[in-house]
Amino acid sequence: MKKSLLLGAVGALLLVGAGCASTNAPTGDTSINTNPTPTPAPVVDTSPIKIGWIGPLTGDLASLGQDAEKATEVALDEVNAAGGINGRPLQLVPQDSKCNPKDASDAGNKLINVDKVSVILGGLCSGETTAVAPVAEQNHVVMISPCSSAPNITTAGDYIFRTYPSDAFQGKVAAEYMYNTLGKKKVAVLAVLGDYGTGLKNAFITRYKELGGEVVFAEDYVQEARDLRTQLTKIKNSDAEAVYFIAYTEAGLAGLKQAKEIGLKLPMMGGDTWDDAKIPESKLAEGFIYTVGNTDSSNVDFTSKLKAKGASNTACAPRSYDNVKIVAEIMKRVGNDASKIKDELYKVKDYPGIGNTITLDSNGDVTTAAYDYKTIKNGKVEILK
Fold first, then answer.
1. Which of 108, 145, 245, 307 could form a cystine bridge with 162, CB 3.0-4.6 A?
2. What pLDDT is attached to residue 171?
């Protein structure tokens, strides 16, 4: 009896002891790790952001295209020197479109489908822009042109922008200058066939007739034409008091040379494609008058930066620079997302560009249009007062 009670008591004590031991004994390794695994630092993307560029580096308007491409480089250099797009440099992918719609279309397809760009700077010639616009629109890639001016670009698509005014304005002011300032009441119009030439010609003729002027001759020629003697002879034999000559550089110079050869001495006027350094250098354009989108001509710093790259501050250069800066500012906020970049471009208002203050409307067009009237005098370009 006592033995069993004793055994019971001992058993109880053992159970209590076991319970106490289980609360104090470690159930695993609870030692403090003094060398914890560090949390990996976030990966910073420093890969380049490709931006496409389309314009004429050879062929018609090559000089203007080269100036525009160098102006684009100036802006890219400044953006990258300041840290790029949140640490990512911009990388330009230029494509020579020769001011030709077919070459421009091929260039656009390469930039979109091979290089996978979200933004294309260009085109320069209106025919380049209208050729690329459908594929850019279909693939949701932003296009922003520094100098395509054909009126039909206004309705080219939601992803298509330009910071240069439409020729709906340029044709109007040119007609007013021809009729009111030069006092010419009968005019001949000779225009390159295509989006640019046709749009500018129609705008000029419409306004000129509204003013009371008479168009005594109007004819188109294909862009590749270099012999315009037939058309110029018809003009010489007409009642025209002046000629409105819409041309790209090479055909324009050929036409001026041939006009002298046949003795055509009428005053001539043209559009912004004449703002090419090759024109005054040719010694063929003395007295020629042309219109070009107004820019801040006092910006000596920009002009000197272009000169350092072997370029001139011609028609497409200022807004080529501005477009890079505008896109870069937007990318810093929203990244390399074309849809977001597009939405932000519609919000651009009062941007202080070299090519004037820029505000974009619901069509992606600039809201203001101001022009300089320039002439060639003693082999140099002068702004007419």
1. 145
2. 98
